[in-house]
Amino acid sequence: MNLSALTALSPLDGRYASRMGSLRPLLSEFGLMHRRVQVEVEWFIALSDAGFDEFKPLSAGARELLRALVTNFGEADAQAIKDIEKTTNHDVKAVEYWIKSRFESHAELKAAGEFVHFACTSEDINNTSHGLMLKAARQDVILPTLDRIIDKLTGMAHTLAAVPMLSRTHGQTASPTTVGKEIANVVARLRNARTRIADVKLLAKMNGAVGNYNAHLSAWPDFDWEAFSQRVIEQQLGLTFNPYTIQIEPHDYMAELFDAVTRANTILIDWSRDVWGYVSLGYFKQRTKAGEIGSSTMPHKVNPIDFENAEGNFGLANAVLTHLSQKLPISRWQRDLTDSTVLRNMGVGLGYALLGYDSLLKGLDKLEINEAALAADLDAAWEVLAEPIQTVMRRYALPNPYERLKELTRGKAITRESIQDFIRGLELPEPEKARLLALTPGGYTGTAESLARRL
């Protein structure tokens, strides 16, 4: 069978391929090759500027040609590298040979060709490439998409700040809140999670086969290779230098980043399930789309499929990202290849996260508040006023307030009349009685509205 959207094993490259367009050029094998070329080029240019007699500073034309290899890198270039790899059976060496092949018609570059990949081990190129891939994915896709969710939820929190809603703790009726405040809670958590993702420093190393600049010093023993490496990593590539590594950069920062994304996803799993429940209760209605079918046999159904899809894909994302974060910091001695095959799945983990974000946004855009259902639910839950009544009784030292309200309300159907009859029989100052008699479940929301608006 030919590979196509219908035959792809991964739904990310099949059913959902159209939703992966932003990540595909960054975290695919093409994306890895692209970054490898970028790292090799920047290392090569930096070497020319290091002051070595044997490698003079490159001309402006040579630099322009080199950086054009990065800027104009396309699928044909990636395929050319793959074709070289069929012979080398080594992916990084194939990149080196491809770059050198582009020097054939340029005498200056061809003469300096042996400084491509100079003193580097494959992991010098790979770890910096992975850092650049994650930097772009975080900066261009993950954070902007999370920001869209945060902005959407913040707008909902403000719009629905004053709409009262019956809370449920342990699935049972509890003190009322507002819809906006419930959403504000999610936003506050998600903002913190977003900060944790953004604050992870993306580390890189370029220090040779076992992290000690052995080969570098064999060529120029008096040169400060550590300072040079740091300049390339931080000033030319925009990553953070890690001075202490084995052959590989230890990937602790990757674990930190993937754990941070997992935490954000977990918050959104929690929210997806809550919205699913609110839709089930009728608190939210969903706008329908012409031609869309909710059930193959029950025509009336409008299923909360976007929130279900979001929850499922966040689960898949977290499974992959958790494995990455637990496996990548572990390497036998100086290194083994288990990290290499696992790292090829960064796009899978973050792809499922992106799919979850996209599904959640689609679902949120369909929601419409059903204030009638919210009001009816509140009007059927007068028992929630047992809390404020017994609290006022405590203020005025009335005997056994909790026990008396427990006897009145626990496991019983309470109406407005029964709760108000109880209030009228209390030995309270008349102004306090009047205040309690005026209280309704929908009016007993504390600071919920102001908290939601303050967000």
From TrEMBL:
InterPro entries: Fumarase/histidase_N, Fumarate_lyase_CS, Fumarate_lyase_fam, Fumarate_lyase_N, L-Aspartase-like, Pur_lyase, PurB_bact, PurB_C. Keywords: Lyase, Purine biosynthesis. GO terms for molecular function: lyase activity. The keyword Membrane does not apply. SUPFAM superfamilies: L-aspartase-like. Residues 331-445 form the Adenylosuccinate lyase PurB C-terminal domain. Residues 32-312 form the Fumarate lyase N-terminal domain. Gene3D superfamilies: Fumarase/aspartase (C-terminal domain) (1.10.40.30), Fumarase/aspartase (Central domain) (1.20.200.10), Fumarase/aspartase (N-terminal domain) (1.10.275.10). CDD domains: PurB. Pathway: Purine metabolism; IMP biosynthesis via de novo pathway; 5-amino-1-(5-phospho-D-ribosyl)imidazole-4-carboxamide from 5-amino-1-(5-phospho-D-ribosyl)imidazole-4-carboxylate: step 2/2; Purine metabolism; AMP biosynthesis via de novo pathway; AMP from IMP: step 2/2. Belongs to the lyase 1 family. Adenylosuccinate lyase subfamily. Catalyzes two reactions in de novo purine nucleotide biosynthesis. Catalyzes the breakdown of 5-aminoimidazole- (N-succinylocarboxamide) ribotide (SAICAR or 2-[5-amino-1-(5-phospho-beta-D-ribosyl)imidazole-4-carboxamido]succinate) to 5-aminoimidazole-4-carboxamide ribotide (AICAR or 5-amino-1-(5-phospho-beta-D-ribosyl)imidazole-4-carboxamide) and fumarate, and of adenylosuccinate (ADS or N(6)-(1,2-dicarboxyethyl)-AMP) to adenosine monophosphate (AMP) and fumarate. This is Adenylosuccinate lyase. The gene is purB.
